[in-house]
Description:
The complex is a heterodimer. By secondary structure, chain A is α/β, with parallel strands linked by helices.
Amino acid sequence: xxxxxxxxxxxDYGSGRGVFDVTFEVNKGEVFGxxxxxxxxxxTTIRHIMGFSRPQHGTTTVNGLDSWTQHYVIQRDVGxxxxxxxxxxxxxxxxxxxxxxxxxxxxxxxxxxxxxxxFELEPSGGLKRMSLGMKxxxxxxxxxxxxxDTLVLDEPTSGLDPVMQDIFISFxxxxxxxxxxxxxxxxxxxxxxxxxxxxxIIKDGHLVSTFVADDLRHNESKTFKIxxxxxxxxxxxxxxxxxxxxxxxxxxxxxxxxxxxLIDDAHVNELIATLAxxxxxxxxxxxxxxxDYFMKFYDRNTSVEMxxxxxxx
Amino acid sequence: xxxxxIFKQTLRSNWKLWAIFTAIMAAMSALVIAVFDPKMIQGxxxxxxxxxxxxxxxxxxxxxxATSLLGMLGQSFYGMQGILLxxxxxxxxxxTLVASQVDRGSMAYLLSTPIKRTRVVGTQALYLISSIxxxxxxxxxxGLSTVQLAxxxxxxxxxxxxxxxxxxxxxxxxxxxxxxxxxxxxxxxAITAGAEARGVDQDVYTIYLNQKLANNAYQAxxxxxxxxxxxxxxxxxxxxxxxxxxxAAGAVLGLDSTTYATxxxxxxxxxxxxxxxxxxxxxxxxxxxxxxxxxxxIEPGDLAQDMGKIKANPAALGAAADAxxxxxxxxxxEGTPPxxxxxxxxxxxxxxxxxxxxxxxxxxxNGLDFSVKDYLLLNLGAxxxxxxxxxxxxxxxxxxxxxxNSLALGAGIPVAFFIFQIMxxxxxxxxxxxxxxxxxxxxxxxxxxxxxxVPQFAILAVLGITLYATGIKVFKEKDLPL
Lengths: 313, 482
């Protein structure tokens, strides 16, 4: 039985917003990446998992219990890190931790103290004057303090400095080793890439792809970057590849006569044969990343003239 | 339905607002009680009544209500300031407790613990209710203490200090003395003790006693006739024409019917004369007061409030007596020495002062006819009104996810109720507005003048409970954008 089961979840907020027929499950001990830009429906899905919202269609369950009707039962074993940190401002961090411990019926604070020192949290100050980073750390500590078996993390590293991000990612890896089930929503590829076993991509409320991360890493297609010696060659190449669609142009940089192409390993000889007719400046493989895969879904409809926003080189 | 931990946190987050509003409300009600002066109010009322036209415009019950401390409190603090302040507190707190936490997102933390939604929101409702309750408890305790401190502890006992002192002296119980003041009047020692207990001299006290007895006699006559005491006071001939009334009133004074009838005839004759005379006397007294004020170096107006000061100062009394010249010069025989004229005038002025002081004592008795039960009922009513209004604000705080929407209705409706009630009091053409306002269900006047208020209280209570319960149910079943 999957720990988290999202079954045909639909919630229509109108004007195309919401989630539509989303189905996935997260199994015990799995780290599941939930990728999508802001507004794609990540938080809406998590809202339903946490029992904050009632589904219009479909169900979400945690350990087999319905999220909506059993929301207070499932919380016993779930750690939730919200995407937006809004803490009760009148309290100090220490008071807040004590309150959360009390609400969860905890008496042993050893693990909490361990987390506090691990994340270098200074909880004594008032929450109103705490820096965003400190608030995030406080939210992390309160999400993990009862050492839950299931973690629901909504963009957990936003607002953390790079050093803290590394500490957090290694912490997630440790938690994974300890057999925790983790749902990690993010739009930061590196952290998803570094931690997740399986990944789902959500776009405009629809799941567009769910895949095993390792499959992506050992992909049977490769991306190559090619720069032509002249504009003539560049244009000729583009015209030539319009015909037989064996390769996929990911992006072009006309001013540099550069093109990035995606091609199946099976067709790589044909590419090289084709390229033999051109004067090239260079030809190199770009290691395929999650980001590229992700962009496949998001940039498919954008104009060729546009550069991929996050493209490096 | 209740979580101690959440309550503790809510208390921690909201106590400051509670403390500020409670302090302001308690201070305000204490101030209104402390500055209450039945003599002054009585004077104002007499003035209003004497103005032709004005008296017709004002509701008679309003006038009579305002002369007692509770009546005045009901019209000022419990009709206006206290309600408005309570309203603002309730609106702000209700919004903070639910809608604002959902709007900001901090509610997510409470709901990511194994606590049912109904418990979270039920705790918030409980905080709101208990904060209103404790607010009015503080106001009530401060109010009662102020009555005790500022008005010489006259509340709670039906018997005035002189009755108690006389009862002790005469070795009978206080009730007996209170019901038959002739026991004091006919015993010089009791008069001495009574005067001392009241803090006035014996002359004043005797006049006070007689006046009080006369009032009691009117009351007895009114009871015998089955009419209001005001009717009898306005037209004593009613008593004169009824043998039962005569004997009842006479009994109070320790007189038989015939003797009392004679007294009454004199009184009726006197009051017919006095209308013109009073005007003339008034002018003379004012002249005397002005002269005495100059000697004492205080404002004549202030002196009029406290004429005992003249009595205590022979120079002032002398000046006042000469200036007032209450006894017309022609009434003295030819060749009366000036010293004798002066002395006679002084005695006349003194008797005016004594009558005034005795009158003040009567007003004090009437004005501070303070019923703790009515005072508690006033506060209970104000609490119930705030409880119900809190229910409205709380419901909308539960319904809406955005503070601004919660406030639009949760504050808008209570404020509209308040305004409608004020409008309904302004004139009879707007009176129907009272049916649009919940505030109408708390009518301080009905409490102080012993009208109907229990059904209204019950409606407020039931309505409030329904609103809170609905709020909790709505919150339990709604989507939260957390």
